Amino acid sequence: MLDCRGQRCPLPVIALARRLPDLPVGAVLRVLADDPAAAVDIPAWCRMRGQEFVTAVEGPGYDVRRIH
């Protein structure tokens, strides 16, 4: 889990980009981010980087699966 609550975008996306490579392929990282822009920025980052945006969850959180 990556807690980015209270951070304004693009900081949650930057933190995601730094943390995801530390995880094994196939792992899911939950990013907690309460900035409304994260709802758009995190899925967009996944598309641009070829990672899988799994789902948005209440909290608010976003699950991202490392593909490569």
Show the helix and strand layout.
Blueprint: E1 2-3, H1 11-19, E2 28-32, H2 38-49, E3 52-57, E4 61-65
Parallel strand pairs: 1-2
Antiparallel strand pairs: 2-4, 3-4
Report on this model:
The chain is of the alpha+beta class and 68 residues long. It has 2 helices and 4 strands; from the N terminus they run βαβαββ. It has helices spanning 11-19, 38-49, and strands spanning 2-3, 28-32, 52-57, 61-65. A 4-stranded mixed sheet has the order 1-2-4-3, with helices on one face. Strand 1 (2-3), helix 1 and strand 2 form a beta-alpha-beta unit. It is globular, with a radius of gyration of 10 Å. The model has no long low-confidence stretch (mean pLDDT 97).
Give a concise summary.
The protein is of the alpha+beta class and 68 residues long.
Low-confidence runs of at least 5 consecutive residues: none
H/E series, N to C? Answer: EHEHEE
The biggest beta sheet reads:
4 strands, mixed
How many distinct helices? 2
Q: Helical percent range?
A: 25-40%
Average predicted confidence as pLDDT: 97
Number of DSSP strands?
Answer: 4
Strand content: 25-35%
Overall structural class, as computed from helix and strand content, comes to alpha+beta
Which value, in Å, is the CA radius of gyration?
A: 10 Å
Strand order of the largest sheet: 1-2-4-3
The rounded distance between the terminal residues' Cα atoms is 19 Å
Shape: globular
